[in-house]
Amino acid sequence: MGERRKIIAGNWKMNKTPKEAKALIETLIPLVKTDDADVVFCVPFVDIPAAVEAVAGTNIQIGAQNMYFEDKGAFTGEISPEMLWELGVEYVIVGHSERRQYFGETDEDINKKLLMAFEYDLIPIVCCGETLEEREAGNTLSRIKEQILGAFDEVPEDLAVETVIAYEPIWAIGTGKTATSQQAEEVCGYIRQIIGELYGEETAAAIRIQYGGSVNAGNAAELFAMPDIDGGLVGGASLKEEFGQIVNYQ
Ligand code: PGA
User: Is the pLDDT of residue 145 over 60?
Assistant: First the structure.
């Protein structure tokens, strides 16, 4: 297995106004070490300018939580990848389970977003994960496979390798119920296997796969030590000083 650099991203969801975002980032900067891991704050759209300004001069990068899959046009209320790029955004979360669940995003939409993100040099953090019902019915791996094949349809190898995949079991998101490190590793390893089948061993060894779902300062070290887990996508705990401990988990 090659040397994959860890990536730890905060998904702020619909929290913090621009002023609050600036204050939180100023609190977090001295707590977050960026020597050994890429650190990304995925903030609400309107917070992006304040966030980009607040992280200037650090290695912390800013991400968005969504985007639309068209360049421009009559799509009231949507945000284009070019708009994000112009503001200095470097990552974009695509296909978070809350987008799938509450806003009806399909694997096809997610695939279009993935392809469009690359057009504007945005690195997608593409999410996948099973519901509790799917897990209990023994359908976790088949559901994950369906989501990964859907997301990566027609995505060429040179772009696929840049993508970050976040495995987020839906039953673990915001519930305080973390997947065990074995459960998380099983699925992340399986995702790497699917990427290997699609693109070959080299890409599989290089692509970064995060775990997300109730990551906190107490469980990060164990999760991130697993061979196929290259960091985390952190929701609730990314809004607190605890995020510093998660990033500095070693
Ligand atoms: P959580 O959210 O850490 O609050 O469970 C993770 C996510 O939804 O990205």
Answer: yes
What is the residue type of 22?
K
Instruction: Report which DSSP code applies to 70.
Output: S
> Which residue minimizes the CA distance to atom 1 of ligand 1?
235
* pLDDT at res. 64: 98
Fill in the amino acid letter for 66. Answer: N
| CA-nearest residue, atom 7 of ligand 1 | 235
Q: How much is the mean pLDDT over the chain?
A: 96
CA of 175 to the centre of ligand 1 (A): 9
* pTM, to two decimals: 0.97
**Active site residue ranges:** 96, 168
Residue with tokens 């839906």: 170
**CA 11 to ligand 1 centroid distance, Å:** 7
Please work out whether the CB of residue 242 comes within 6 Å of at least one atom of ligand 1: no
Choose the weakest-confidence range: 109-123, 165-179, 203-217.
165-179
Could you tell me the CA-to-CA distances from 210 to 16, 30, 46, 71, 87 in Å, in that order? 24, 24, 26, 28, 25
Distance CA 24, CA 36 (A): 22
Per-residue pLDDT band for 72 (boundaries 50, 70, 90) equals very high
Quote the CA–CA distance of 23 and 135 in Å, as a whole number: 39
- How far apart CA 60 and CA 243 sit, in angstroms, is 13
Q: Which single residue is written with the structure tokens 């000083």?
A: 241
Does the pLDDT at position 176 exceed 90?
no
How many Å from the N-terminal Cα to the C-terminal Cα in the chain?
A: 20
pLDDT, tens only, 105-132: 999 999 999 999 999 999 999 999 999 9
Residue with tokens 């100023």: 26
